[in-house]
Amino acid sequence: MIPLNHLEVWLRGPLPDMPALLQPVAHALLQAREEVNSLMDGFPDALLREQPGNVASVGFHLQHLSGVLDRMFTYARGEQLSSSQLNDLSMESTPTGSFLTTVDLVRRFNQQVDEALLQLRQTDQSTLTEVRGVGRAQLPSTLIGLYVHAAEHTMRHVGQLSVTARIIRWS
Fold first, then answer.
1. pLDDT, tens only, 134-164
2. Which residues touch 148 (CB under 8 Å, ≥6 apart)?
3. Where in this chain does the record put each DinB-like domain (predicted)?
């Protein structure tokens, strides 16, 4: 018998108090958190800005992971981004920008996942097909579309983070 903590999150069973239709989103976010925490354990702050092959840095991915969740879940609530969120967004794309420590960035991501999970738990499944506007142009999406995009975009960047961090660590 394989211990549950050795299985991917989605194979560990339903999460308590999580709407059934949002279980896959929650599972993906929890999987991302586990992978980020494991991968970043002991990662040197001095390497956060390294860009091997001119790819996005580890620091960028860590900032972007938190930012994407924050922005997508803001739109899911039917809100527009605040000036602080817009400022954070502009800082993500600045490779020479000031990064916090690895521990700070991972802590911020963990907090963002916690906030996302709370919002998912509070979501009425009957509202999942409601239209939500994205960005200043209010491009149309749905509540479930935003949640699924947040999860898949998060996992995409976790994959990129994983490769970049491993290349940097073992170069």
1. 999 999 999 999 999 999 999 999 999 999 9
2. 24, 25
3. 29-161
